[in-house]
User: Which sequence fits this backbone?
C-alpha cells in the first residue's frame, strides 16, 4: 500500500530490532520498533478493570514525535503477536508509513493472565479501551484501520460493534459475527472436530467444559453476542468482508456485511465491500473438484478494495463509491461449464432472486411439483454415524478424533454416503437447462420420531455426468431447538408427534449445469464435524460413537413426511436463472 509517508521513507534504510523489554516507563524507539505503554511493569495497556494486555507498537525507522502523527493499523489476536508472521506484517506496514499496533487479546500470549483462554470474554470493552489509548498517543493521527482473519476477524467485529474511537476502516477476513450460531453451535449442534482441534491451538481446552455446559443460547452467549441490543448501529467503519463459500465462517462473513451495510451509522451504510470466493478455511484444496484449486481466490479483488478503502479512511484520498460494486461473488459449478466459476458483481446482498421450492417425493425424486402424500423412515444409530462428507468443516483433524478423518470443501460424497440405509436421497432428473442459485438456502422438514430428541441434517449435492456426487451446501438442526436456541425455547419431542423443522443451510452461489442432476440427502448425523446425538434429550455433550458404551442412548426411528402439511418437505432455492 502506497502512502505519502511511505514515499518520504522510500530510499531510507529500514531496520527493525525486536527487543523483550520490561519495566520501561517511557517510549523507546530502536531502529523503527517502539514499545509504548501505560504501565510500569512492561509493554502493556491497562484495561478498565485493571487487566493488562500485552501490546507492541511499530513506527517507521527513525520516526520521532517531531515527525508528527501517523495513521494506525491495529491487529488484536489470539495467535501471539511475537509470532514471525505478526512481526513481519508489522514491519512491512510500518515501512510503508503507518504506526502498527499489535496486541495479544485477553487470555493469550503476553496477556495470558491465569493462563487459560476463556473464549473472548470482553472483546468489546478491551477493544474500546485499546483504541481510546491509541488515539491519545502522539504517534496517532486519530485514524485507525483494523485487520485480521478468522478469530482476528471476530475481534474486529467486536471492536466495531463497541463503537471504538478512531476506527474507520477494516479488512475482515473469514470471521463469525456470532459465536453461538456461526462458530460453536450451528443449529444447536456442537462442532466437535472444530472445537477439539482449535481450542488446543489457543490453549483453551481447559475451558471446553464451560462451552459444553452452555449448550443453549442463554446469558453466557448473549453477553458475547454482537447482535443483541442493536449494537451494530454503533458501527462507524467501512470494511472489506472477505470469505469463501466453503469456509466454516461463511455465514458470519455475509451477515457482517449485511449488518454493516444496512444497520450501521450513515457513514458505514452502503459503504461496504463483500468478496466471496471458492475458499474453504485457509485454502482452496477441494478433493472432489481439484480444478477449484486453480480458480481466482478473490485476493486481487479483496485487497484492491482494501487499498482504496484504507487510502480513503487513513490518508484522505477519496474513493468513487458511485462506480464501485459492493459485492463480488464467484458462481461455483462444473469446471467444464464456461458460465460457472466466474465472478459476478452486485450493489447489495442478497442479490435479487425468486424463491422456489423443490419438493421431496415418495419415489425419491426431487422437483418443483408438489408430491402425493407419503413418508420415508430410517434408523439412526449413534454408534454408527454418517461421516462428514466435505463442506464447511474446519480443515484440521482434532487429535482426539482418530476413528474418522475430517473432510471438507467440494468433496465427492460417494465415499461417505454410498450404501448407507440411514440416508434419504431425493434426486432430480437430468437437467435440460441450468439451475442457478444465489443466496440463502434452507430446508423445510415435516418429521416425526420415536425419540424425544435427535438431529436432522440436509445436504445439497451436484451429481456430475461422470458420476461424481459433489457437495454444494448443508445444514443441521437439533430437533429440541426447532423453536429457538435458548432455554426458554428448547422443547423435546413427543414420540410419534409431527413437527415442522426449518434447517438453515447458510448461503451459496452455484450453477447446476445441463445434464447434471440435483440431489438432497437427509439423515441425522455428520460426524466428526458435529458431535453425535444419543437421541435421549439429555444434556448436550462432545459425544462420538465410542461414547455410546458409557452414556445412555437410543436408536432413533426417524420419519420424513412428504407431500403433507401447510408446507410440504422441500428445499428452498434462491433462483437467479
Assistant:
Amino acid at each position: 500500500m502506497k502512502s505519502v509517508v511511505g514515499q518520504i521513507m522510500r530510499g531510507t534504510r529500514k531496520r527493525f530490532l525486536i527487543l523483550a523489554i520490561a519495566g520501561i516507563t517511557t517510549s523507546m524507539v530502536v531502529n523503527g520498533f517502539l514499545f509504548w505503554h501505560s504501565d510500569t511493569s512492561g509493554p502493556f495497556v491497562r484495561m478498565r478493570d485493571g487487566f493488562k494486555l500485552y501490546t507492541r507498537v511499530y513506527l517507521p525507522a527513525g520516526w520521532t514525535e517531531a515527525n508528527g502523527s501517523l495513521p494506525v493499523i491495529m491487529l488484536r489476536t489470539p495467535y501471539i503477536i511475537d509470532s514471525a508472521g505478526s512481526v513481519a506484517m508489522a514491519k512491512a506496514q510500518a515501512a510503508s508509513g503507518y504506526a502498527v499496533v499489535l496486541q495479544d487479546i485477553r487470555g493469550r500470549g503476553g496477556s495470558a493472565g491465569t493462563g487459560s483462554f476463556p473464549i473472548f470474554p470482553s472483546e468489546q470493552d478491551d477493544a474500546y479501551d485499546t483504541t481510546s489509548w491509541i488515539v491519545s498517543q502522539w504517534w496517532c493521527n486519530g485514524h485507525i484501520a483494523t485487520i485480521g482473519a478468522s478469530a482476528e476477524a471476530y475481534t474486529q467485529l467486536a471492536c466495531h460493534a463497541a463503537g471504538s474511537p478512531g476506527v474507520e476502516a477494516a479488512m475482515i477476513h473469514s470471521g463469525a459475527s456470532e459465536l453461538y450460531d456461526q462458530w460453536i453451535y450451528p443449529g444447536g449442534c456442537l462442532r466437535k472436530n472444530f472445537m477439539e482441534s482449535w481450542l488446543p491451538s489457543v490453549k483453551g481446552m481447559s475451558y471446553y467444559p464451560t462451552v459444553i455446559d452452555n449448550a443453549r443460547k442463554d446469558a453466557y452467549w448473549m453477553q458475547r453476542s454482537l447482535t443483541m441490543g442493536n449494537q451494530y448501529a454503533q458501527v462507524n467503519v467501512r470494511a472489506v468482508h472477505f470469505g469463501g463459500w466453503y469456509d466454516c465462517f461463511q455465514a458470519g462473513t455475509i451477515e457482517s456485511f449485511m449488518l454493516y451495510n444496512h444497520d450501521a451509522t450513515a457513514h458505514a451504510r452502503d459503504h461496504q465491500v463483500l468478496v466471496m470466493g471458492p475458499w474453504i478455511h485457509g485454502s482452496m484444496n477441494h478433493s472432489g473438484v481439484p480444478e477449484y484449486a486453480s480458480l481466482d481466490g478473490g485476493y486481487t479483488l479483496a485487497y484492491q478494495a482494501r487499498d482504496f478503502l484504507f487510502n480513503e479512511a487513513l490518508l484522505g484520498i477519496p474513493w468513487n463509491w458511485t462506480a464501485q460494486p459492493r459485492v463480488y461473488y464467484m458462481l461455483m459449478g462444473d469446471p467444464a461449464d464456461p458460465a460457472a466459476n466466474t465472478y459476478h458483481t452486485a450493489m447489495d446482498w442478497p442479490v435479487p432472486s425468486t424463491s422456489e421450492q423443490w419438493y421431496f417425493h415418495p419415489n425419491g425424486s426431487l422437483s418443483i411439483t408438489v408430491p402425493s402424500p407419503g413418508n420415508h423412515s430410517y434408523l439412526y444409530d449413534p454408534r454408527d454415524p454418517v461421516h462428514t462428507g466435505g463442506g464447511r468443516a474446519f480443515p484440521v483433524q482434532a487429535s482426539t478424533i482418530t476413528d474418522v478423518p475430517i473432510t471438507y470443501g467440494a468433496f465427492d460424497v460417494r465415499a461417505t454416503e454410498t450404501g448407507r440405509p440411514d440416508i434419504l436421497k431425493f434426486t432430480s432428473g437430468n437437467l435440460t437447462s441450468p439451475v442457478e442459485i444465489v443466496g440463502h438456502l434452507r430446508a423445510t422438514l415435516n418429521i416425526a420420531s420415536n425419540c424425544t430428541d435427535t438431529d436432522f441434517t440436509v445436504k445439497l449435492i451436484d451429481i456430475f455426468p461422470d458420476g461424481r456426487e459433489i457437495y454444494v451446501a448443508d445444514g443441521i438442526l437439533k430437533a429440541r431447538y426447532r423453536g429457538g436456541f435458548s432455554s426458554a425455547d428448547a422443547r423435546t419431542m413427543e414420540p410419534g408427534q409431527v413437527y415442522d423443522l426449518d434447517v438453515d443451510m447458510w448461503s451459496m452461489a452455484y450453477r447446476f449445469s445441463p445434464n447434471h442432476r440435483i440431489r438432497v440427502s437427509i439423515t441425522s448425523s455428520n460426524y466428526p464435524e458435529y458431535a453425535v446425538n444419543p437421541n435421549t434429550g439429555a444434556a448436550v455433550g462432545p459425544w462420538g460413537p465410542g461414547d455410546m458404551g458409557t452414556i445412555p442412548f437410543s436408536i432413533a426411528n426417524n420419519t420424513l413426511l412428504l407431500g403433507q402439511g401447510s408446507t410440504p418437505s422441500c428445499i428452498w432455492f434462491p433462483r437467479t436463472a
Remarks:
- The domain at 354-575 is CATH 2.60.120.260 (Jelly Rolls).
- The first strand starts at residue 28 and ends at 30.
- The longest helix spans residues 299-315.
